[in-house]
Amino acid sequence: MFKVTVPATSANLGVGYDVMGLAVDLYLNVDFEPQPQGLTILGGDPKFQNSDNLIYRAFQKGCEAIGKPVPGVQLTVDCDIPDARGLGSSAACIVAGLAGANYWFDSPLNDTQLLALATEMEGHPDNVAPAIFGELTATIMNNKLPVVAHYQVADKWQLAVVIPDTPLSTAKARSVLPKSMTYAQASYQMGHCTLAATALERGDRELLQAAMHDQMQEPYRASLIHGFTEIKSLGQQLGLNVLISGAGSTMLAIGQDENKLQRFLQVAKRQHPTWRCQQVNIQQHGAMISEVSAVAEA
Ligand code: HSE
To answer: What residue ranges line ligand 1, CB within 6 angstroms?
Structure first.
């Protein structure tokens, strides 16, 4: 028996729509245990305890890519990544299933191959890349194949998430975006995205402040997220960058001052007592696998 642990991911980082993604320390854990045949799923939402389960579909896809029949398996799911909140819950499921299949058959696939399979399932690479490689990634598609750059992020950054009660489907959040943009808008966005990645890597607070002005998705999605304007302006008052995590509804705050981040969380929680508001850390490693011994099981 073995355990696959996959981090949550915050895609886009505001200005890097469908390109950038950051791994954070909320996790999906899945135990894989052989059984004579078929599928058993324990844990997680009961409505996903069947063969439509995304972890299992990814496991099947991984077996197929490796050229092996799908073995009988028991999956035990323990997930702290909220569903449909812009923290990469579906990417984590996909990566867990693929990584599980790969490890099951002695790891014939490398991370780049896993990324290609995961991107095929997810539709875009920005969540699955940091879920596999950890930390900050930027990914482009070349002839339908993802090409990834991995950034080491300066350890000065402090992060917090404000997670509303209400989910937001990625399909809905994508449907409100315009179909095209001008050269001037594309140039604006390329510049901001490039400088944001550099700022995160260098730990340059002023550069990040200058770069974190998204014109590609935030203006269109803001009204879908209850409380976004207030949370964003609270962050601005405290000198924090607040952006929509992935397609939302979570808001991610980035800064370098622990006290300001704590103050931000206190006020957000006071305004929205039922929301989950907490600090998170950048997760350096992507999907991790550990053997679970019989002693640990007992
Ligand atoms: N880049 C994606 C989006 C992330 O913003 O729609 C959500 O899966």
So the answer is: 11-12, 17-18, 124, 126-127, 170, 173-174, 217, 246-247
Same fold yes or no, 2-152+283-297 and 158-280: no
Give the pLDDT mean for 2-14.
Answer: 97
Q: Which two tokens stand for residue 158?
A: 């402090």
* Residue 298: predicted pLDDT: 44
Q: Which of 266, 270, 265, 243 is nearest to 254 (CA)?
A: 243
Assigned token pair, 8: 């949550």
| Mean pLDDT value across residues 82-99 | 96
- 17 secondary structure, DSSP code: T
Domain 158-280 class? alpha beta
**pTM of the entire predicted model:** 0.94
Report the residue among 168, 174, 243 best suited for mutation to probe ligand 1: largest number of ligand atoms under 8 A from its CB.
Answer: 174
Burial 84-99 (b: 16+ CB within 10 A, else e): bbbbbbbbbbbbbbbb
What is the separation of C-alpha 53 from the centre of its chain, rounded to a whole number of angstroms?
Answer: 18
What Rg, from alpha-carbon coordinates, does the chain have?
Answer: 19
The CATH number, out of the four listed (3.40.50.2020, 3.30.230.10, 3.40.718.10, 3.40.50.620), of the domain defined by the range 2-152+283-297: 3.30.230.10
